[in-house]
Amino acid sequence: MTLRIPADRFDAFLADFEKGVVRFDSKSVTATDVTEEFIDVSQRLKVKKATEERYIALLAKAASVRDVLETEKYIAEVRAEIESLEGRLKYLRNRIGLSTLTITFYQLKPEMQGFASRFGLAFSEGWNNFLTFLLGAISLWPFLFAGVAIVAGIRFVWKLRK
Asked: Strand, helix or coil at 136?
């Protein structure tokens, strides 16, 4: 199970979740600091937006069609990079605001000790095995028909020869 929990409520949620647990096979809490990447992406985004503004200013001063086309090409490249950086920044903001908790759990079945409970379990397993055998036998009906057809064909040919 994977849960996304507000970062400020993570410790309280984890404490509440652990209350009913008798035994842990393993428990691991790790943290990933994305502050450096967040600052780096923010600065790169700021630079790209300034570059886009300079290209737009150059576009207004373009004298020839060639200059316009070339400047628009650069603007499109910078705009694509800006959108990519904005997407990464949005992802990082989401990672900062919410903690991800991955939980793997199972419940052990209580071991049966008494003769009556073992007898009941053996009877239940025997019945399930019988049903499995019956369903397997039923699934073989095409082979049964083919076998009957082959035997009938051999008997027919045998009677024709006599």
From this structure: helix
